[in-house]
Each structure stands twice: as C-alpha cells, then as structure tokens.
Amino acid sequence: MKIVLASNNKGKLAELQSMLEPLGVELIAQSQLFAGEAEEPYHTFVENALAKARFAAERTGLPAIADDAGMCVEAFGGLPGVQTAYYCTQFGYEKSDANNVRALLEQMQDIDNRRATMVSTLVAVRSALDPEPLIAVGRVRGEILREPKGTNGFGFDPIMFIPELGNTFAQLPPVVKNSYSHRGRATQQMLDMLRENWF
C-alpha cells in the first residue's frame, strides 16, 4: 500500500518509513509527487496535522499520514509548540535545526526550570474528506541541556535529555530512539490503529 507522507522533512520520512515497515507500507514524501505545502494556521498539533494530511490526500488521491511535532517548554508555557520548526526565525536567525537549538539555548540561558516535553501527533486519512481520521499522540518528557550532546537525530535531539535513559536523543542509536521517542510512541499507536482499521 502506498501512503503519502505530508512532509518534506527527510528525518521524519526515514524514521516513519522504518517504523511502518512491518505493515509493508511504501511511504512516499509529498515532494516526490507535488510542489508546495499545506498552510498550518492552527495552534494545536492535531489541527495542523489534520490539515496537512487532508491537503496531501487531496493533491495525490492517495491515503496520507501527517506528523505535527514540536518542543513544549514548561518555562515558556508550552511554547514554541506548533511553531517549533520556525522558532529561531523570531530571533533573526535563518530557519534550521542548528539555529533552533542555538536560539532556544540563548533564550533559556538564565532559566533554571529546564523541563520540556516533545510531542508528536500523527494523523492518517484514507482520503481528503475522510470523516474518521486516525489520530495518535506520543509524548516524552525531559530536560533541556545547556549545551548539545550527540550527533544522531535531528531538530532538538542534541539538547533534549531523557533522565530515564541518561542521554539526549542525539546520543542514542536510531533503533533505541525510535522505540522511545515521541514520534516512536505515536507511530506505535498508529501502527495498531492502521492494522485494526485499514488492513
């Protein structure tokens, strides 16, 4: 079965493809099928993920999966949240993972409360008008380090320290990260829902 991933993020594509492999799903990045991206005007992960999934399904005629994920920093009242990917741009930096990490560390330099949650919301639709989208949410709580550690992963992985594991996500082998991460947890839920409802 072919499913379009409503994202152009290569890191997300690689992670989700490996985790959906047990279903025999061929996950195709939307950039391979059309140009452009859905607007994400909402303030919640689930609304933005649903908008992205419906947009990709409409443009391709294929079932679609979208992931909206982000960092929710306790000291910032849950922000940057849905604006995580563009976080650094509000401080004059060009959009990039490295600049997001730099900006967050700068904004938190005098903050002692380092608690944060990484959230991933996956939405799957059979078609653009699917009245019954499948929705899975994964969360991982941790702490923001004061400097990056590790070279694996992407996004905020180098500064998201997981106390139970004693490492940042960027210090973990991909197979360990995928089994424990916010996206890994959401994907496991989604796998179960896809098996039950679509396969």
From TrEMBL:
Extent of the signal sequence: none
Database matches in HAMAP family: Non_canon_purine_NTPase (MF_01405)
Record: residues binding substrate: 7-12, 69, 154-157, 177, 182-183
CDD domains per UniProt: HAM1 (cd00515)
Biological process according to GO: nucleotide metabolic process; purine nucleoside triphosphate catabolic process
Protein known as: dITP/XTP pyrophosphatase
Function summary: Pyrophosphatase that catalyzes the hydrolysis of nucleoside triphosphates to their monophosphate derivatives, with a high preference for the non-canonical purine nucleotides XTP (xanthosine triphosphate), dITP (deoxyinosine triphosphate) and ITP. Seems to function as a house-cleaning enzyme that removes non-canonical purine nucleotides from the nucleotide pool, thus preventing their incorporation into DNA/RNA and avoiding chromosomal lesions.
Gene: rdgB
Any single GO CC term annotated in Swiss-Prot or TrEMBL for this entry: cytosol
Lineage, top ranks: Bacteria, Pseudomonadati, Pseudomonadota, Betaproteobacteria, Burkholderiales
Keyword field: Hydrolase, Magnesium, Metal-binding, Nucleotide metabolism, Nucleotide-binding
Family statement: Belongs to the HAM1 NTPase family.
Cofactor: Mg(2+)
Catalytic activity, as annotated: XTP + H2O = XMP + diphosphate + H(+); dITP + H2O = dIMP + diphosphate + H(+); ITP + H2O = IMP + diphosphate + H(+)
Organism in which the protein naturally occurs: Diaphorobacter aerolatus
